[in-house]
Amino acid sequence: SEDGGPFQLSGTTPATSETFSGLHGSTYAFYTVANDRAGNMEDPPAVADATTLILPDTAPPVTTATANPPANTHGWNNTNVTVNLGATDGPDGSGVQEIMYSASGAQAIASTTVAAEFVSLNFTTEGVTTLTYFARDFSRNEEAAGTLIVRIDKTLPVISGLPALGCSLWPPNHELVQVATVIARDGLSGL
């Protein structure tokens, strides 16, 4: 019986035990009837043999975001980045129903919902992208949104202002003369 409703046959088994799974926040009443090999059957009891409450799931899931390859010590990557989002709902949870994510910045991603515990995203656009994500479980608990910043710079730095090839100073009179103003630039991650 679920939440005081009528009893329903859950199943039959030749084994001496059976496993039952129910919904969080519901009360279940059970009775058993045994049959022997001669065909004798026990009478159903007047009241349930056991009653149990499956406690409600009030804890939200937890999502972990992992970037591959990880960023360098300055927080940048010089290649494409794959971000894996993995959500878990704990041993007493109702289970992860879905992961929601979006991204803004260099590589925008519209708000997306995926009915899964795991999502893999590829980032290929140079610049700074902020990924926002969270998960919801089957009891409709939502975790607070998390963020991961992905910084990609695949463009080599540029040095300019060097004298042209073949440039020479003559006569060598041991005096310092400015021949160039050398400038190094990097438009994304800096130098």
Record the SSE blueprint.
Layout: E1 27-30, E2 50-53, E3 62-68, E4 81-88, E5 96-105, E6 109-114, E7 118-123, E8 127-137, E9 146-152, E10 158-160, E11 183-185
Antiparallel strand pairs: 1-2, 3-4, 4-7, 5-6, 5-8, 8-9, 10-11
Task: Give a description of the structure.
By secondary structure, the protein is mainly beta. It has no helices and eleven strands. It has a four-stranded antiparallel sheet, with no helix packed on it. A hairpin with a 3-residue loop joins strand 5 and strand 6.
List keywords for this structure.
mainly beta; 191 residues; 4-stranded antiparallel beta sheet; 3-stranded antiparallel beta sheet; 0% helix; single chain; rod-shaped
Question: What would a concise description of this structure say?
Answer:
By secondary structure, the protein is mostly beta strands. It contains no helices and eleven strands.
Helix content: under 10%
User: Could you list the spans in which at least 5 consecutive residues all have pLDDT below 50?
Assistant: none
Tell the overall outline: rod-shaped
Q: Sheet bearing the most strands, described? A: 4 strands, antiparallel
State the strand order across the main sheet.
6-5-8-9
Structural class label: mainly beta
Can you write the helix and strand succession as a string? EEEEEEEEEEE
Mean of residue pLDDT values: 88
Number of helices: 0
Radius of gyration: 33 Å
The total beta strand count reads 11
Rounded to the nearest angstrom, the distance between the terminal CA atoms is 69 Å
β-strand amount: 35-45%
